[in-house]
């Protein structure tokens, strides 16, 4: 088993469309996390920033950008980018520094100011860039991929649009209880069905929005935690940041085609399953140990896929798990008690950090109306473009 | 905007990939520098035409105008088109493409046979930008 790091502080700037600079959200979240940890910014020996590709140069060096905004104090700096997994890579970088003794206490920050509508690539002609090509050649936006996955689930597992809508209903109900969520209204299945189709069979309310937001963590060694009066902190026991194995035979963003399975048989498990398995192995735990999960519901259908990929149920059984109420508050394994991306929208570099914030609040018993009873072990999981994905397991 | 992804006309139209001479792995879009099979030491990458026909792995459509760099005339109202991910059996690969004009999601089912046909992505005064489309084989030309 891997060594653990303590979560001393968590903080978030509420998600929304505030029209301000990403740095403001990150700094607000950072200050909240430091306050929560009972530490001063000057106590922090290392800062890890999760980058944004929408903030110009400052976004590519987010660690330094946040360090400057908080006030230069000579801290070690790291900046990471891993698409939707950026926040988890930031956690992993912080953890590696702590476990190797390079730093005692690390501030992790991610924030974004999202565009209106579809995410799009940066300008210019870039024929060597798969993310540029899928837009230029096919007009394949992110919802197109989500639509493909949803239709595939309908054909292979018999899922229906109403099943997908139930995921939104569940998540909206929990988001209504979350002061940091952007969307805080309950939604009915009828409202989902009445929303416009974006990428058949998915409708507007099946697909997450893009949002502004910021989240931060203060992580430390267990020894530092003890010395600073944190007797029983939330601990991160695993961080998975694995890449796919060749051949990757599931069409993943932003690819126009899969790998070919002609030369080598596909691996026994899909990439998403391998993300979770690496975390379970590192933590010495299994899906049966989980109290709750935070998953990347970019679309309603994708949440059902995550149930299966996390091993919460067998292949094709995601809908049954949902309809049994198992993944709602009060169920056996609440998923997205935060309200999920359905209630937040996506703020790319902040999102994986926000997932860990939720796990921490839940494990501390500080989740208020959203509290999962007796939460002891939580997992977060996401997947991003270009072979990125992550899972974090936290315990208390 | 990309060279060497397809060739031919009419019934002779094919997507072009590359195949590694050492391990027989197929790549689309083409890989011209080094085989990406990690257990392969690397062989010569030769251009090959991909199978013309395949089966629908999944499909969807695009009800809202995609952002640039996708090119569409902002003066014209948006006409949705379908997209199809197609499994090619011989190459054991799934390739995404737009559906031929006039094909909608109502016409498609997972598992149905489709074939690759030439298409036009868009035209301006100087250039016709060509592409590939997928079309159900039951459809008459």
Write up this protein.
- The complex is a heterodimer of chains A (396) and B (141).
- Chain A is α/β, with parallel strands linked by helices and 396 residues long.
- Chain A has helices at residues 22-37, 56-60, 62-70, 86-99, 130-138, 142-157, 161-175, 189-194, 222-227, 271-283, 300-309, 318-323, 340-344, 348-364; strands at 5-16, 46-50, 76-80, 105-112, 197-199, 202-203, 212-220, 234-240, 292-295, 377-384, 388-395.
- In chain A, a hairpin with a 2-residue loop joins β5 and β6 (202-203).
- In chain A, α6 (142-157) packs across α11.
- The longest helix of chain A is centred in the C-terminal third of the chain and has 17 residues, at 348-364.
- Chain B is an all-beta fold and 141 residues long.
- Chain B contains no helices and 9 strands.
- Chain B has strands at residues 6-7, 14-20, 26-27, 45-49, 53-61, 82-88, 93-99, 113-123, 128-136.
- The chains are: A alpha/beta (396), B mainly beta (141).
- Chains A and B meet through α5, α6 and β5 of A and β3, β5, β6 and β7 of B.
């Amino acid at each position: 088993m891997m060594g653990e790091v303590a979560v001393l502080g968590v903080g978030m700037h509420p998600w929304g469309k505030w029209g301000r600079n990403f740095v403001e959200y990150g700094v607000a979240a950072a200050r909240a996390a430091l306050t929560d940890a009972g530490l001063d910014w000057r106590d922090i020996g290392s800062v890890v920033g999760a980058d944004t590709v929408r903030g110009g140069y400052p976004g590519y060096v987010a660690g330094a950008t946040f360090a400057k905004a908080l006030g230069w104090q000579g801290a070690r700096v790291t900046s990471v980018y891993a698409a939707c997994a950026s926040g988890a890579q930031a956690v992993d970088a912080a953890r590696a520094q702590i476990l190797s003794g390079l730093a005692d206490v690390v501030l992790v920050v991610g924030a974004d100011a999202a565009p209106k509508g579809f995410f799009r690539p940066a300008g210019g002609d870039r024929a060597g860039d798969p993310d540029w090509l899928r837009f230029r050649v096919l007009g394949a936006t992110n919802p197109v991929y989500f639509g493909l996955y949803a239709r595939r689930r309908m054909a292979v597992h018999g899922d229906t649009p109403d099943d997908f809508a139930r995921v939104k209903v569940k998540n909206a109900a929990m988001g209504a209880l979350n002061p940091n969520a952007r969307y805080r209204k309950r939604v009915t299945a009828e409202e989902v069905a009445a929303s416009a189709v974006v990428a058949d069979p998915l409708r507007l309310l099946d697909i997450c929005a893009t949002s502004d937001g910021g989240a931060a963590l203060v992580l430390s060694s267990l020894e530092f935690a003890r010395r600073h009066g944190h007797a029983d902190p939330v601990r991160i026991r695993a961080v998975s940041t694995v890449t796919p194995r060749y051949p990757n035979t599931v069409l993943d963003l932003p690819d126009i085609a899969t790998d070919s399975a002609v030369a080598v048989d596909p691996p026994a498990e899909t990439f998403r399953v391998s993300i979770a398995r690496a975390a379970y192995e590192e933590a010495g735990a299994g899906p049966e140990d989980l109290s709750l999960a935070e998953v990347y519901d970019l679309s309603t259908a994708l949440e059902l896929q995550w149930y299966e990929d996390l091993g919460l149920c067998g292949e094709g059984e995601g809908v049954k798990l949902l309809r049994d109420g198992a993944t709602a508050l009060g169920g056996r394994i609440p998923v997205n008690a935060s309200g999920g991306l359905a209630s937040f929208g996506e703020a790319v570099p902040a999102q994986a950090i926000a997932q860990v914030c939720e796990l921490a609040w839940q494990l501390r018993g500080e989740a208020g109306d959203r509290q999962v009873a007796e939460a002891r072990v939580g997992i977060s999981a996401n997947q991003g473009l270009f072979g990125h994905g992550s899972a974090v397991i936290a315990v208390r | 905007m990309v060279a060497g992804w397809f060739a031919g006309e009419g019934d002779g139209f094919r997507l072009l990939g590359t195949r590694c001479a050492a391990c027989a792995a197929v790549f689309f879009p083409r890989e011209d520098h080094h085989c990406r099979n990690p257990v392969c030491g690397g062989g010569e990458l030769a251009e090959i035409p991909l199978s013309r026909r395949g089966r629908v792995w999944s499909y969807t459509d695009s009800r809202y105008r995609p952002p640039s760099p996708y090119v569409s005339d902002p003066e014209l109202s948006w006409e949705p088109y379908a997209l199809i991910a197609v499994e090619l059996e011989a190459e054991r690969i799934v390739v995404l493409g737009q559906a031929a004009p006039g094909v909608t999601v109502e016409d498609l089912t997972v598992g149905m046979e489709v074939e690759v046909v030439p298409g036009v992505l868009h035209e301006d005064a100087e250039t016709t930008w060509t592409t590939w489309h997928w079309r159900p084989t039951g459809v008459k030309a």
